[in-house]
Amino acid sequence: MKYFGIIAVFTLVVINVSVAAGWGYRASDQRRWAVLHPACGGRQQSPIAISARQAIPISIPAIELIGYQNPLPGPLTITNTGHSVALTIPKYTSEEEKKGFRLPYIFGGPLDNEYEIDGLHFHWGDKNNRGSEHTLNDMRLPLEMHIIHRNKKYRNTAEAMQHPDGLCVLAFFYQVVEFDAKLLSPIVKNLTAIENFNSTLQLPHTFSLSSILSGLDTERFYTYKGSLTTPPCAEAVTWVIFSDYLPISVFQMDNFRGLLSNLNLPLVDNFRQLQPLFGRRVFVRITSKNPKFKKTKLHYSKWDWVGHKKSENDVIDFDE
Ligand SMILES: [Zn+2]
Asked: Where are the domains of the chain?
């Protein structure tokens, strides 16, 4: 009887802590996301399994990365959110905008408007054989970076999340290499300072986005319509996933794995389970390297994102 009491009290405490924290990544936690955030149970969810064999080749422009070579406005901050490491980029003041300063933005590819950078974060694994959210040809990579962009026709992220064309996330896979790669070091070398949940660090130096993507082939990518991969799971995301890998060393991966979650446990395996496609199509951009696809060329103005026509009643409500 005494033991029952102890177990009951312990269980109560654990439940309270996880409710306070909002949501978690354990399989049992993920199944409950849709309770508070109904969109998480929708039919256009992310991440998904990407397969080169099943993707539909399509002739679309490359993604233009405008201002990616300029230093980001400072001070940049990194935060341990308890679910990830997020880089926050300050907005330019109206004075600075008058002088011509602009945040980096993207257009081209599947996008029919300009999308401005909103921030970036990472998903990683406890071991090198897992961590990425999307899988590529059944492979899970140890780290995936998401650079979030907001459609400029919406004033802020909250508004953009209400619209199917609200956000574009560029996703990058990392592959483990023997020696430290310099690319991510402005972030990685400072991770020890934000070991604890909710801690934030102002980075001493700013850097450009192209410096952390240096050498990546951006010509070839997959694209599909999906969602945020964390609650509220808004189905507002055009995903652009590059097939080329960026490098990261084991030592650098360990810096990510040394972070602590909101429950004071190692912050690892912060990736969502794969979601069903439900008739969605995944496209792959035709490049000069795969010209054999030219015969099956499909003009992007005629493409449809979803295999079947949605009925009037099939409208999904977004939850914030
Ligand atoms: Zn993410």
From this structure: 38-314
Rg, Å, the chain Cα set: 20
Residues in the chain: 320
The tens digit of pLDDT for each residue in 232-284 reads 999 999 999 999 999 999 999 999 999 999 889 999 999 999 999 999 999 99
- Note the CATH architecture for domain 38-314: Roll (3.10)
Q: Which of 37, 83, 146, 149 is catalytic?
A: 83
Question: Which residues have C-beta under 5 Å from ligand 1, the single-atom ion?
Answer: 146
**What whole-number distance in Å separates Cα of residue 227 and Cα of residue 12?**
33
Residues of the chain under the 50 pLDDT cut: 1-2, 4, 6-21, 295, 308-320
| Cα-to-centroid distance, 102 and ligand 1 (Å) | 24
d(CA 283, CA 238): 12
What's the pLDDT tens digit per position in 115-134?
999 999 999 999 999 999 99
Cα end-to-end distance, the chain, whole Å: 43
By C-alpha distance, which of 137, 268, 259 is closest to 197?
A: 259
Q: Establish whether 83 is a catalytic residue.
A: yes
pLDDT, position 190: 96
What backbone torsions phi and psi does residue 4 show, to the nearest 5 degrees? Answer: -55, -45
Question: What pLDDT, on a 0 to 100 scale, did the predictor assign at position 293?
Answer: 52
- Residues facing residue 285 across a β-bridge: 58
CA 140–ligand 1 middle distance (angstroms): 15
57 CA to centre of ligand 1 in angstroms: 25
Q: Is 105 a catalytic residue?
A: no
Query: In angstroms, what is the span from residue 122 Cα to ligand 1's centroid?
Result: 6
